[in-house]
Write a structure and sequence with these properties.
The complex is a heterodimer of chains A (589) and B (356).
Chain A (H helix, E strand, L loop, with lengths): L3 H16 L1 H4 L4 H22 L5 E10 L2 E8 L6 H9 L19 H14 L3 E6 L6 E9 L4 E10 L6 E9 L9 H11 L4 E6 L2 E5 L22 H10 L5 H8 L5 H10 L12 H13 L15 H11 L7 E2 L3 E8 L2 E11 L10 E6 L2 E3 L7 H8 L20 E9 L16 H53 L7 H7 L3 E6 L2 E6 L5 E8 L3 E9 L4 E3 L4 H6 L1 E4 L6 E2 L2 E2 L2 H4 L2
Parallel strand pairs in A: 1-7, 12-14, 15-21, 20-22
Antiparallel strand pairs in A: 1-2, 2-6, 3-4, 3-6, 4-5, 7-8, 9-11, 10-11, 11-14, 12-13, 15-16, 16-19, 17-18, 17-20
Helix pairs in contact in A: 3-5, 6-11, 8-9, 12-13
Chain B lengths: L2 H15 L5 E5 L6 E4 L4 E4 L3 E5 L3 H23 L3 E2 H7 L11 H15 L8 E2 L6 E3 L2 E6 L5 E5 L9 E2 L9 E6 L3 E5 L2 H9 L2 H4 L2 E5 L6 H14 L3 E4 L4 H12 L8 H4 L5 E4 L2 H6 L5 E2 L2 H12 L6 H13 L1 E2 L12 H14 L3
Parallel strand pairs in B: 5-6, 12-13, 12-14, 14-15
Antiparallel strand pairs in B: 1-4, 2-3, 7-10, 7-13, 8-9, 8-11, 16-17
Helix pairs in contact in B: 3-4, 11-12
Classes of the chains: A alpha+beta (589), B alpha/beta (356).
Chain lengths: 589, 356
């Protein structure tokens, strides 16, 4: 009997992996290749993030033979100390950082070990790792496998080598896979990862192409701090075990020291509400724990600390998205909409979103949705994801997009990017492919998406007006001058002065968007002063004083503001081109 | 530069120089502005004027395009060249903002220029590319050839079985009639019927001039018929299929078309007679027929509203065709043999309308 138990245990780990391939995302050759790249890249980004390093990551996918691929991922991160390499990669580590409440990408160890195991199972090839830390003069080259029976690393060899980088880690695996393009491909994953990590540079080399995605932001994101759990996030059992670990301490102290947002004052109030003023932990009954837990759940604490989150940030997101979609020549970018922190079950989360409109984005197809959780793109299971569900349930008709089927994605030339950052993302499965439709998250998404929707409506209206405005300008800037010069050349006379004609034809104050700037020209015959108000997610105002006939000025507004706002001016509608008359209600603001 | 064109350019230039929004004005060219001119017996444009002001981008563009056309005409004038409408359409590729979207647009604008300046497009050195009609019969005419010499020929003796093909320009500076010995002109819609009459020597037997109009007749074909009628004083008889579209061929020869109502005086021949195939012929000669299509019925109903058909003869024929629900081709007469049309049908019908 005694001999059988370890044997059985060893088999069960291998079986665990086999049976849970799907759970871990390794259920098909296409997905296995994708997951291998994803796990390695996620680790690289997390490692760089921990040390405040601006990541530069190189991903190479080579076709070794038929369905065998070599995946190599190299970073400029801190590297892993020589002594820790074997355990870091060679053991399935479960929840090593479980008790730390902080936003991270990966499960720290499980994913990449699964990839190593998958590679060795499908091709029999060991994994190679090169590492160099700042404390070492040389790098070290490891060739290793995972001993599945013992759940232990099996290092074939380690040798020092000279690596001309300061620090870094490179991992190379040979696995059975299938390389696809388009949706759910390695390329798409890297492209989207670059969007969510604008401080990182990526070099991707595929058998048929090379792609360089250079960082658009030069500051590394703030490293999220670790905080104590928020009282709303604790389960009854966890509460009881925390209390039992501190049986001798006063309840007030246990509460204020183990939870965030609980001051001794709040702790007293809670104790009062739970009728525990004279209670001692050692003598607390199950019933009393339940009452306490319920009081805590219903008590209005300050919202969880936001510093444990690492949102992309409005400026970085805007830069990143405008950089990534530049080749589609979009007509407009929305302003990023950021809301939060919100809370579900005591876990703080923020949502960031931005929309890209027009240009070469297909007009007759459903809007493209890019989903991100803690800066990781989600490419699979869109249908069961909270983000897709929230977008589908917005009534898009009121924002100018058609939605032929209720509760499905609307149709239009739009890309919507949504990022949720949280200390705990409630995934629908271990493979972390979709965010569960938790009511608090759906509600928060709805608020953010309405902000995006209002901007899309403004963009659509602007697009409709744009052709009219451009037609007017083409009339006065091109066609009328051409008529004048053609007639003059036929008659061999001097070209007529067409300015009086222009003011007759226009007779308006004309607003025009030119290369991200908003210009205003006075085509009337008198001097004009008026306020200009841009109203979108924000409201900005500029006063124009004494604009002379035929004078053109450039207003100060930023491109983000111009793209995503309706333009109003303090003049009657009949005197305006490219702007609406300022409604009475904003006039005196 | 042609004075009339120059006047138009000058008007545009002067308006601009005076600080006015330039415009062009022309008679409205739609169905609502077609009126019957009692004096000439043809349909012409009425007095509705449309003004195209350059305050709208589309109108301004059309003014610019007109200027380009006029400049191009001036250029051709200087080089002694002419151009087809299609060539001009392609040449406009280099006219920047003056480039035409389609040949329809450039053709329409050429007609606009005709309406405005009352010049013919031929006078503006622009010509269609479609070929004119074929003619067979005892008429002698002379044509100015490329060498600048008058070439004389008889349209019966000096031509093959396909006849004399008339050029796009049939104005007197190009074609002059010398002598003839015919009693009437028979304008025939289809090539098959034209060839039948030629083979049966109908031109000789009935002392007639056969003109193959090739479906909806071109401007030069109508102009030739108009000149034959006016200058030689010979009656014009039109012989087509018996369907709504063929009725329109007759109307176009006799009364003019909406598109060319500005030149109805020189294109239309209001004294033309229609010999057949009429709706009543279908019953009278018991002709093989086809069922009217929905489009045919629609066209017949539109003709009932068309002012050009607003006379008892046509009202009767159109109503009769609608009642029968049938149409018949010219060549359906072959039911009674190849000679029936020349020996029986045409002599009988021509006698009835008084041509012979």
């Amino acid at each position: 009997m005694k001999q059988v138990i370890p044997e059985r245990k060893a088999v069960s780990i291998s079986e665990f992996f086999d049976k849970n391939k799907q759970m871990l995302g390794f259920d098909s050759p296409q997905k296995a290749l994708f997951m291998t790249v994803k796990e390695a890249v996620d680790n690289s980004l997390d490692a760089c993030g921990d040390f405040g390093i601006m990541p530069e990551i190189t991903v190479v996918v080579e076709n070794v033979e038929n369905d065998k691929f070599r995946v190599t991922v190299a970073d400029n991160g801190p590297g892993i100390p020589r002594r820790e390499v074997a355990d870091s990669f060679g053991k399935m580590l479960y929840g090593s950082r479980f008790h730390i409440v902080r936003q991270t990408r990966g499960q720290q160890g499980l994913g990449i070990s699964a990839a190593i195991m998958y590679a060795q199972k499908t091709t029999g090839q060991p994994t190679e790792i090169w590492t160099k830390t700042k404390d070492d003069l040389t790098g070290f080259h490891f060739v290793m496998e995972i001993n599945i029976k013992r759940n232990e690393p099996d290092v074939h060899k380690v040798e020092p080598f000279v690596w001309n980088v300061e620090t870094g880690l490179r991992i190379s695996l040979i696995l059975k896979g299938k390389l696809v393009s388009g949706k759910q491909s390695v390329e798409e994953y890297i492209r989207e990862t670059a969007i969510a990590n604008p401080h990182a540079t990526f070099h991707l080399s595929l058998p048929d192409k090379k792609i360089d995605l250079i960082r658009s932001v030069n500051e590394s994101p703030v490293i999220p701090v670790a905080v104590k759990p928020h009282p709303h996030g604790v389960e009854l059992g966890e509460l009881m075990s925390i209390f039992r670990e501190n049986e001798d301490a006063p309840i007030e102290k246990v509460l204020s020291e183990n939870f965030s947002r609980v001051t001794s004052q709040t702790a007293k109030e809670i104790i009062g509400l739970a009728n525990l003023k004279s209670a001692k932990i050692s003598s607390m009954t199950q019933k009393e724990f339940e009452i306490l837990w319920n009081v805590m759940r219903n008590y209005q604490f300050m919202e969880p600390n936001k510093e444990c989150l690492s949102p992309i940030g409005e400026e970085a997101l805007y830069k990143s998205v405008s950089n990534a979609f530049d080749d589609l020549h979009p007509a407009y970018f929305s302003m990023p909409v950021t809301k939060g922190p919100f809370v579900f079950s005591g876990h703080p989360f923020t949502i960031e979103a931005i929309a890209v409109y027009g240009g070469n984005i297909p007009k007759e197809e459903p809007v493209k949705v890019m989903r991100f959780a803690n800066r990781v793109p989600l490419l699979y299971q869109p249908g069961s994801c909270a983000i897709t569900k929230a977008i589908s349930t917005v009534a898009w008709n009121q924002y100018g997009l058609s939605q032929p089927v209720k509760d499905q994605l609307p149709i239009g030339p739009v890309i919507i990017v949504v990022h949720i950052a949280s200390t705990k993302i409630p995934y629908t499965s271990e493979a972390k492919e979709a965010i569960a439709p938790v009511p608090e998250i759906l509600e928060a998404l709805d608020i953010v998406l309405k902000g995006i929707g209002r901007q899309i409506r403004a963009m659509r209206r602007k697009e409709e007006h744009k052709s009219h405005i451009e037609e007017k300008f083409s009339l006065i800037e091109q066609i009328l001058p051409a008529i004048g010069s053609k007639a003059a050349s036929i008659l061999k006379l001097e070209e007529p002065d067409i300015r009086p004609i222009i003011s007759k034809v226009m007779g308006v104050i004309a607003f025009r968007e030119e290369e991200g700037k908003l210009t205003v020209t006075n085509f009337t015959e008198t001097q004009k002063s008026f306020a200009v108000v841009l109203k979108g997610e924000r409201e900005e105002r500029e006063n124009v004083k004494n604009l002379r006939p035929f004078e053109k000025i450039t207003l100060r507004f930023s491109r983000e503001m111009i793209d995503s706002s309706e333009i109003y001016a303090g003049l009657p509608d009949k005197l305006l081109l490219g702007a609406y008359s300022l409604p009475e209600v904003f006039k005196n603001e | 530069m042609n004075e009339k064109l120059k006047d138009l350019v000058k008007k545009i230039y002067d308006e601009m120089a005076a600080g006015q929004v330039p415009k062009v004005e022309l008679k409205s060219r739609n169905k609502e502005n077609i009126v019957f001119d009692n004096l000439s017996g043809v349909w012409k444009y009425g007095n509705n004027i449309v003004s195209r002001y350059a305050s709208k981008a589309s109108s301004a563009k059309s003014i610019l395009k007109m200027l380009y056309i006029m400049d191009f005409i001036d250029e051709m004038d200087a080089g002694g060249k002419t151009s087809t409408l299609r060539e001009m359409y392609y040449i406009s590729e280099g006219w920047n903002l003056g480039k035409f979207e389609s040949q329809d647009e450039s053709d329409l604008m050429t007609e606009d220029l005709e309406v405005i300046t009352s010049l013919l497009r031929e006078e503006m050195r622009l010509r269609p590319e479609e070929s004119g009609a074929s003619v067979i019969g005892n008429i002698t005419l002379k044509e100015m050839n490329r060498k600048g010499e008058w070439k004389r020929l008889n349209c019966r003796d000096d031509v093959g079985d396909a006849g004399y093909t008339i050029p796009y320009n049939v104005e007197p500076e190009k074609i002059q009639f010398e002598s003839h010995d015919v009693d009437f002109v028979l304008a025939i819609e289809t090539g098959g019927m034209f060839d039948r009459l030629v083979e049966n020597r109908f031109d000789e037997k009935m002392r007639s001039l056969l003109v193959h109009v090739k479906g909806q007749p071109s401007r030069s074909t109508k102009r030739l018929i108009n000149r034959l009628n006016k200058e030689l004083n010979v009656p014009i008889v039109v012989f087509t299929d018996g369907d709504p579209w063929s009725f329109r061929i007759f109307a176009s020869i006799a009364y003019g078309a909406i598109k060319t109502a500005h030149i109805s005086d020189i294109l239309a021949t209001p004294s033309s007679e229609f010999v057949g195939i009429t709706a009543t012929d279908i019953t009278r000669y018991d002709l093989p027929t086809d069922k009217l299509s929905d489009k045919d019925v629609e066209a017949l109903n539109a003709e009932l509203e068309d002012p050009r058909f607003n006379i008892p003869f046509w009202k009767g024929e159109i109503t009769e065709m609608l009642r029968l629900g049938r149409k018949a081709e010219q060549q359906a007469l072959a039911k009674y043999g190849l000679d029936f049309v020349t020996d029986k049908y045409l002599p009988e019908k021509l006698r009835e309308i008084g041509t012979i």
